[in-house]
Amino acid sequence: MIELAPLAFRPYLKTVIWGGDKICAYKGIESSEKNIGESWEISAVPGHESVVAEGTYEGLKITELIDRFGAELLGTEVARRYDGKFPLLIKIIDAADNLSVQVHPDDALAQKRHGSLGKTEMWYIIQADKGARIFAGLNVEMTPDDYVRRVAEGTFASTLAVHDSHPGDIFFLPAGRVHAIGAGNLLAEIQESSDVTYRIYDYDRRDAAGNPRELHTEQAKDAIDYRVYPDYKSPAAPADVVDATIVSCDHFTTDRILLNGSLDLPLTSASFTVLMCIEGEVTLSYAGGSMKVEQGHTVLIPAALTAVTATGKATLLTSHS
């Protein structure tokens, strides 16, 4: 008998200096906090483990569920590959101001320095104000010494490739790619389960205590991919395809689903599936029950639950490892 059903977690709302006021309105929730820049939807990052919001396991951390159910929750392949740990971090990000220019190390460098996974990630643009931009990749090749010189001169930010931002745009950011979210973007972020970030440039901003925000110039030097690529924006998902894979890499695969009616979700016992309702509303039906998921909300479908039907009119993102 399968004991697990789709799991909804309490979002961790993170206040930051560049945060805005869109997340709560988008999710249809209330908060007294201001400048909310991130909603951590599903996290197993130590110190910020997601907590089940409702149902049989209300109040339990995701790590406690993994201890109890193991591969039934994670999936047989994920449990083996990641030694029983949850490998992804799922966020919604609201940038009222530009985020810092930053880069993330790959798995090998992050393990060596921090005992952590690296951070390959992707962005799916949910809303974009007029003139909103994404900074991803370099527009000029350089050496590590060129990078250090440009940071010292204050000119490194000018070497970033700049992209206009629109709802539905997709950016894949492998570890090593320099990037920054520009002001006016509300987006979904799917990434490896890592909180390791090297900040390169931050517009000379100061924290709440008036201190300059810490930069990681030397650490970033060995993490950056200095090559220039022909295109940094991923192809848009076709409007006439109901279920389209938009990112597939070694760490996760993400599909965009345009739901208008009913669809049996493509699930597998090898991995859990994360479902984000980007727009609209969906009802998930499974053996023993059903769950409604509204815009801006995220659920974790355990790997043991391989038969789930989605019904409604919605734009969904599904991700698995």
Q: Could you explain how this protein is built, in words?
A:
The protein has 321 residues and is mainly beta. It has seven helices and 18 strands. It has helices spanning 22-27, 62-69, 71-74, 76-81, 107-114, 144-153, 217-221, and strands at 7-8, 12-20, 36-42, 88-95, 101-103, 121-128, 133-138, 160-164, 170-173, 179-181, 185-192, 198-201, 243-248, 253-264, 273-286, 289-294, 298-301, 308-320. The strands form four sheets. Strands 1, 13, 14, 15, 16, 17 and 18 form a seven-stranded antiparallel beta sheet that branches. A hairpin with a 2-residue loop joins strand 15 (273-286) and strand 16 (289-294). The radius of gyration is 20 Å and the shape is globular. The model has no long low-confidence stretch (mean pLDDT 95).
Q: How is the main sheet built?
A: 7 strands, antiparallel
| Spans of at least 5 consecutive residues with low confidence | none
Strand content: 35-45%
Helix fraction? 10-25%
- Computed Rg: 20 Å
> Kindly state the mean pLDDT as a whole number?
95
Secondary-structure class? mainly beta
Shape, principal axes of CA atoms: globular
Number of helices: 7
**Span between N and C termini?**
25 Å
- Number-wise, the strands total 18
What is the element string, with H for helices and E for strands? EEHEHHHEEHEEHEEEEEHEEEEEE
